Amino acid sequence: MYKNLFTVFLVFVGQIAVAQTTVIRNSEIAQMITEISSDSLEHHVRTLASFNSRHTLSTNEENGMPAAQQYVLSKFQHFAKKSGGRMTAEIEKFIIPGDERRIPTDSPAANVMATLKGTDPADDRIFIISAHMDSRNKDVMDEKGAAPGSNDNGSGTAAVIELARIMASHEFPATILFVAFTGEEQGLKGATYLADKAKKEGWNIGAVLNNDIIGNSSSSETMIKDNLKMRVFSETIPVAETEQEAAIRRYINADNDSKSRQLARYIKEQGERYVDHFEVKLIYRADRFLRGGDQTPFAKNGMTAIRMSEMNENFLHQHENVRVEDGVQYGDLPDFMDYEYLRKVTAVNLASLASLANSPDQPLEVKIDVRNLSNQTTLLWSPPETGTVQGYFVLMRETSSSMWERKFWTTDTGLTLPYSKDNYFFAVQAVSESGAESLPVMPTPLFKLN
After folding, report:
1. Co-location of 238 and 128 in the same domain
2. b/e for 238-275, b at 16 or more Cβ within 10 A?
3. Is the confidence at residue 440, as pLDDT, over 60?
């Protein structure tokens, strides 16, 4: 798939360090991004909003959640026709147990999913791109009132549909799962069902990219209008961290280097590589105050997951009944969205997802040699289990920096650098013959040879 090797070089001129960034875009990914249509995204949002309510407990088969689910399924099935048999689509039904809170009694629910099977039989990784399609009013238990849910979360669902349309005809070594969840507003029910199923069945989840509220560029209260930024939320200390993992984290001071945080950095790098005039802001929180998203159940099960969201939220058009009050229009209506902004966020998703699904697996047994006092740093690792590897990037950054700052190329499974391990953080990426980069792996200490 890749025809170019992605590299970022820092060139030092004379005694002054000049950061010169060379951006090389893969032609196939760049072409896919040009195919993302703001008109198509708007069509999906308006169609989803046209159903009276997509409340999880809605049973109206003509104008409620079941009808909306059939719409998403029909789109997935249509796209599957151009996949050469690699894409399949289904509505997976399940029962949400009553919780005496937002689910009064045991209730039927379903996730709508499309699976684009990977082309490498040895690669069992699954990358999930997701959004929730259920909507709500101010009263979260109101299952009958009109709840268009255009931005929350018709925007994310539209992005997942659009990505399935574009990516269905392309080949990736790893499998991609496109999911429209049910039950997010009732307590992350659909995502919890799938995350628990993935854990029980031993799925190899490479990463989860969850999209929730990604189609508005104007904020309430502050009146900011800005379609040039988006947010990626990622957990700091993993919620599923074991005692052994916590001990290693404390020893190497990797509080800012969870797997989800590495995924967030990866998304920023890939997104800004392909989407012009757009900035991916890293938010060092698992999610917003008083809110949560469908990435959470996957994180709780020890999987690498993040949340994509718009930069500036408008709370006049979230969790509000549709009405005009004191001359102000409330409600999550499609006319209050910015579809060009939604296109950009969708493009960040595509760039990241395509790069991940075409990358080799991560290098194994990544170690940093701490056996001796030294002003050099030696890293050692083993090749990944799947994927043909051309070489590796050793990443380096100042301990105070949020992003990786330098990449050192090697075709070996070890590298010694003239930089003190005490002063920098390091990680290692595997790079395929086509130039696709894996997620980075932080090294664990090597105290003695085996």
Report:
1. yes
2. beeeeeebeeebeebebebbbbbbbbbbbbbbbbbbbb
3. yes
